[in-house]
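Duplicate of #3305? Posting structure anyway:
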């Protein structure tokens, strides 16, 4: 098998394929740990809540797979912190109902409960809480998947761009600067680069639009404070592995070609993050101590693409929420590559 793209989804797929004894070559255009895609940085939120029960169910299915990855890698990649959702009462009821439909119990915390549990956080309104939420260690996760994949026989080639992917009779092939490689199936996990790479090869491939997002890091006033992960209509946040608090803004930039995006951060977005932090995170110094720009690759209907066309398997469109599902998505893509059925439905190619 060939996997194109070494972000978290391609790395997860290669890990699953190698664990199953498949011969696998992973081809990534940039160096390990690069910052040109969606998966870099040291942390991501894991939560079981969403306004959409499909994604709650996927998160429920992903949680034991995170533990499986930790066991396999022999390292801790997931810190359970508990997660809170901030929003209006009616929006939080939608999330609570979607979570309940997936078998997830949530509880309401009053503002005073929030202050008691996490003195560094503040809410004027009740929030929705579930204890299983937490932080995943992003780059460490990708590194662990690649290391374990290699231990199990996968070949991983960084700085190896793929210039074309084609279905062939009985398999598929990819072009690289070193020549053409052939396999029974090729998994393409190249986020916003996918439509251009697969042009004309995969009928029904939805548009995947790229845009940039911005996050900032804050220093806690009390270094021993603990933090939940959270999502609000404007921001999301979590404790980082090195003791800071990361806060991201939900507003994305304009659609951009993934090779022509800027890396500069926007002063207006910075001000909005700092204002939100000043109001809701009194336990940190509200002036950021670091910033990061990141690329989202999203479909127009916001649903993921996880499907197969001929001998090409596609996994893309994971947008700003995909990391938490990576062990599950990698398993789905490995299933498809080895001829097992995929999830279908809203994740299918050619959906309405
Ligand atoms: C700022 C930000 C915050 C986020 N926060 C969260 C969060 O808290 N929780 C959560 O669950 N999710 C979060 N996400 C979403 C999550 O990070 C993404 O959904 C996920 O990383 C997508 O992974 P990917 O492998 O599809 O894409 P990518 O990481 O972009 O990987 C695609 C890879 O393909 C490679 N590639 C492209 N073209 C080629 C080619 N021709 N040949 C070879 N290689 C190629 C690229 O170099 C890249 O490495 C966040 C995303 C961003 C941007």
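Output from current build:
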């Amino acid at each position: 098998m060939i996997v194109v793209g070494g972000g978290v989804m391609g790395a997860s797929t290669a890990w699953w394929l190698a664990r199953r004894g498949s011969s696998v070559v992973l081809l990534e255009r940039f160096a390990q740990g690069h910052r040109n895609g969606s998966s870099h940085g040291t942390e991501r939120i894991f939560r079981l809540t969403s306004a959409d029960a499909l994604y709650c169910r996927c998160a429920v299915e992903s949680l034991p797979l995170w533990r499986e990855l930790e066991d396999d890698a022999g390292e801790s990649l997931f810190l359970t912190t508990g997660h809170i959702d901030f929003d209006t009462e009616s929006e939080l009821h939608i999330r609570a109902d979607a979570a309940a439909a997936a078998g997830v119990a949530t509880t309401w915390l009053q503002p005073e409960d929030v202050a008691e549990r996490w003195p560094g956080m503040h809410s004027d309104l009740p929030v929705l809480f579930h204890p299983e939420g937490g932080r995943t260690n992003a780059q460490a996760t990708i590194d662990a998947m690649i290391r374990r994949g290699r231990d199990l026989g996968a070949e991983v080639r960084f700085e190896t761009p793929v210039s074309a992917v084609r279905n062939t009779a009985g398999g598929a092939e990819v072009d690289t600067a070193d020549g053409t490689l052939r396999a029974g199936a090729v998994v393409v996990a190249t986020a916003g680069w996918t439509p251009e790479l697969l042009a004309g090869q995969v009928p029904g491939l939805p548009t995947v639009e790229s845009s940039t997002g911005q996050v900032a890091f804050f220093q806690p006033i009390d270094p021993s404070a603990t933090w939940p992960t959270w999502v609000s209509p404007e921001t999301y946040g979590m404790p980082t592995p090195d003791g800071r608090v990361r806060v991201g803004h939900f507003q994305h930039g304009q659609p951009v070609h993934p090779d022509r995006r800027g890396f500069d951060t926007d002063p207006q977005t910075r001000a909005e993050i700092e204002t939100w932090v000043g109001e809701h995170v009194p336990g940190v110094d509200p002036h950021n101590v670091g910033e990061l720009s990141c690329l989202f690759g999203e479909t127009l209907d916001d649903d993921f693409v996880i499907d197969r066309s001929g001998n090409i398997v596609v996994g893309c469109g994971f947008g700003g929420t995909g990391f938490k599902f990576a062990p599950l998505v990698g398993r789905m893509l490995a299933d498809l590559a080895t001829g097992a059925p995929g999830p279908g439905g809203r994740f299918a190619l050619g959906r309405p």
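Confirmed duplicate; merging threads. The first strand starts at residue 2 and ends at 4. Residues 68 and 170 are 33 Å apart (CA to CA).
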